[in-house]
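Q: Please design a sequence for this.
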């Protein structure tokens, strides 16, 4: 993977901030990302805990059933956004791996 140069770094940072800012922890921004072969890779993304809880509540509740809990922190280590050559007519795919959450009961 190649490191993104200055003009592209600013562009990708702006786009990611506009698209994902509602899901991020307040004050966080994208420091680590790479672009290669139509894939934008973001690393070490701090998520907004209440939003993470809302988005994952159904899946977590299936596992934990009647245990009350609170999400304290959430982090995605790697997010890969696959941008097709004709992105206006084809779907953009997002692959997320290594999600960590701090939970308290």
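A: Design:
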């Amino acid at each position: 993977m190649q490191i993104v140069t200055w003009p592209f770094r600013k562009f990708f940072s702006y786009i990611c901030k506009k698209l994902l800012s509602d899901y991020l922890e307040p004050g966080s921004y994208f420091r680590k990302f790479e672009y290669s072969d139509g894939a934008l890779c973001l690393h070490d993304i701090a998520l907004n805990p209440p939003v993470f809880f809302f988005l994952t509540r159904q899946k977590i509740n299936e596992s934990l059933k009647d245990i009350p809990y609170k999400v304290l922190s959430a982090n995605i280590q790697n997010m890969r956004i696959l941008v097709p050559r004709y992105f206006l007519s084809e779907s953009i795919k997002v692959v997320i791996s290594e999600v960590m959450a701090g939970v308290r009961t």
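Q: Thanks. Anything notable?
A: Residues 43 and 78 are 5 Å apart (CA to CA). The longest strand covers residues 70-82.
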